Amino acid sequence: FIFIGRLVIGQNGIMSTPAVSCVIRKIKAIGGIILTASHNPGGPNGDFGIKFNISSGGPAPEGITDKIFQISKSLQEYHICPELKVDLSIIGKQTFEVDTFKPFTVEIVDSVESYAEMLRGIFDFAALKELLSGPNHINVRLDAMHGVVGPYVKKIVCEELGSPANSAVNCVPSEDFGGHHPDPNLIYAADLVNTMKGGEYDFGAAFDGDGDRNMVLGKHGFFVNPSDSVAVIGANITSIPYFQKTGVKGLARSMPTSGALDNVAKALKMPLYETPTGWKFFGNLMDAGKLSLCGEESFGTGSDHIREKDGLWAVLAWLSILATRKQSVEDIMKDHWQKFGRNFFTRYDYEEVDSDAANKMIDHLQTTMSDKAFLGQKFSSEDKTYQVEKADNFEYTDPVDGSVSKGQGLRIIFSDGSRIIFRLSGTGSAGATIRLYIDSYEKDPQKIYQDPQVNLVKSYSFFHKIFVLPLHILFIHSFFLYKCMHLFLLLYFKEKNLL
User: What parts of the sequence cross the membrane (predicted)?
Assistant: First the structure.
C-alpha cells in the first residue's frame, strides 16, 4: 500500500501536456495523471482518455501500464472522501485530515509560470522579444484552437515577448474546443491557413488540444511539413542557447517520418535513431543521454528539456531560427532543400476498414516483399528510376534496455532513400486503420521546388507495378480505392483476372 500525501494540480485544473512533464520533473513527483482529449473532439462523445506519466515526465511504458491493468482486475473496492472540497482557482497549499496517519496536501500551482520559467532557460528571450516587438518586428498568428495551450501562448508570446494581443487567437480553453476539432493540420486549422494566405502575417502556428503538437506556416500560407520542421530545427540547432550549452547528443525520428532528418544527421555527423511510433521510445534514449532532438510526422516535435513533445517549444525554436537567420520561413526552407535535398512526403489514413481484409492485404504485401527476387528490382516513372534496396517489417531493438518491438510496419526502401511504408493498427471489432506513407527523395536543384502533389504522382505511377492485390481488398474502403487505384494500386481478381 502506498499513500499519496501530496497532489499538485494546475490552476483551474488546466495544464498542457508539456507543462505536466515540466512540473513532474521540477518537483520530482513520482508521476502524473493527465485527463485529456488531446487532438480529438472534446465532450462526452469525443475520445476522452486518461494518461499516466512516470517520474521522468514521459509517458508510461507498456510494462507499467500492463501492471496497472492487471492490478485493476483485482480491485475489490474503493473509497471516496466527499467532504474534501478543493478550490482549484486559488494558488497555494490546502491541507486536509483524512483517515490516514498523515495529512493530505493539495497544492494548486501556476503551471504557466513554471513552464515559462523553463523556457527562459532554453531560449534567448531578449532576441525573441526583439523579433516579435522590436522596430523591425515580424507579425505572427498563433491559433490555440481553444485547447489548453492558450494561456501559455498569451503569457509567453504576447505578454512577455511583446507580440500584439491579437497575435494569438482562440486562447480560451473550451471543453468542446469551441465546437471544432483541435488537430493542427491544414484541414482542421483552415481558418489559420486562410488568414496566413492573406499575407499580413510572416509566421503562423496552430496547436492541438493538449498543447504538445504543432503546425508551422510561413507567409502566404507556406506549409512546413512536420518531417521538414524537425529537420530544419536540427540543421539550425545552435540557434537555441540550450543546445549551445548541452551539445547535441543525437537526433531521432519515428519510423514513418520522412528521412529529412537523416540527411541532416549524416551531413552534420550526428547520431540518428529510427524508432517505432510512440514518444516513450524517445524518452528512453533521452534518459540515457543519447538524444537531444526528435520528431514525428504527425506534427510532434520536442527535445530532451522534457519527456513529451512540445508544441510551443517547437514554435519558439522556429522563431529563434528566424531571429538568427533573418530570413522568411519559405527562404529558410528552400535553402534547406538546396543543401540537404528534399523529401516529398505524404500520408493517407484509411479508417474503420474490415479487419480480416486489412490483415490479408498486409500478409499479401509481406509475401511479395519477402521474395528474394524483389530486392534489386527497378521501377521507373518518367525520368526517374527507383531501385529496391531493402524491404522488411520494421523491428526495433532499444539500445538502452534491449527490448524488442516487432511488426512495426512494412518498409520498402529504395537506393536513393525514398520509401513506401504500410502500417496497420486497431484491428479490433471496430475495424482497422491502414496508414500509407510515401517518402520520395529529390536532390536535383531544378526539381526540389516542385509542387509536392506533382512530384508524388510520379511516385504513385510506378507503385502499382510493385504489388498485385486480391479483389477482396476492393471492399476495404471504397473511397480509398476509387481515389487511389489509378495512381498506385492495380487490382486483380483472386483468380488473377485483370479488372
Answer: 467-493
What is the CB-side half-sphere exposure of residue 410 using CA atoms within 13 A?
20
| pLDDT the model gives residue 470 | 33
Interatomic CA distance for residues 409 and 254, integer angstroms: 11
C-alpha cell belonging to residue 243: 543546445
DSSP string, 28-46: T-SEEEEEE-TTS--STTS
Three-state DSSP state, 327? coil
Global confidence as pTM: 0.89
| 8 A C-beta contact, residue 56 and residue 283 | yes
User: Which of 368, 418, 361 has the alpha carbon at shortest distance from 389?
Assistant: 418
Asked if 204 and 192 count as a contact pair (C-beta separation under 8 A), the reply is yes
Give Cα 43 distance to the centre of its chain: 23
Domains identified in the chain and CATH numbers: 6-112 (3.40.120.10), 114-247+306-340 (3.40.120.10), 342-496 (3.30.310.50)
Residue-level pLDDT at 272 = 97
Say whether pLDDT at 496 is over 50.
no
C-alpha cell recorded at residue 458: 510520379
* Angle at which helices 125-133 and 311-325 cross, to 10°: 80
Task: Name residues whose C-beta falls within 8 Å of residue 451's C-beta, 6 or more positions apart in sequence.
Answer: none
Residues pairing with 490 in the sheet: 468
Q: Which residues are catalytic?
A: 38
Give the whole-angstrom CA distance, residue 103 versus residue 272: 48
Helix locations, 295-400, DSSP H: 311-325, 329-340, 355-370
Asked if 148 and 210 count as a contact pair (C-beta separation under 8 A), the reply is yes
- CA angle (493, 496, 499) in 5-degree steps: 50
